[in-house]
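Hi there,

I know you've been waiting on this one. I reran it after we fixed the sequence typo, so this is the corrected version. Both the input and the resulting structure follow.
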Amino acid sequence: MAETLAAGGAAVALVARNAELLDKVVAGIREKGGTAEAIVADVHDEGAVAEAASQVKDRLGVCDILINNAGINNRKSIEDFTLAEWNEILGVNLTGPFLCSRAFVPGMKAKKWGRIINMTSIMTHISLPNRTGYSTTKAGLLGFTKALALELAPHGVTVNGISPGPFATEMNKPLIEDPEKNKMFLERIPLGRWGKVKEIGTLAAYLCSDDAGFITGTDIVIDGGWIAQ
């Protein structure tokens, strides 16, 4: 998403905990003539988010687009979940979008224009065994998306969710590299393949454009037909 938006002329700030990975993506964007900055922060740390917001403003100006993309999964049965693990997944997947939105919304309201995308998941709409933490947070994020969309509509700010299905991401690497699980997933995807990450980039760029200005408070599923079954 950052690469696609940068290619379209956006100046992007990438925020994550891993400085090495951030620098790699930023370097790639800059090599192609784009503008990008790396900011190391943990999105469910209130002070870190406030500092990140300050850095974004200092380096790039007022934020027009916010993509709440940080997320973690914890595949285990409920009796094996510790309270610390439960609080961690709530913190990253749900508190993180709250903190980041709270930090950047004032600038958007002042400009009377803004785009917020929350990365939900098909696990917002369906689920699988051992996904209680993940499904709970993603369903909550959709509720957050709808409520915030209504709150910000009078200010020219749209808020939408993107619900990816099975995509070839780092988070899904354990599934892709397991022949049995990979086969199971492919059999359940009507299009018969894992999604390509650039396809999410294209969708995000559209939602951030003026052409998508009448789309707000909804969730767009991009899953190869999985939940249509």
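Quick highlight: The two ends are 28 Å apart (CA to CA).

Best,
R. S.
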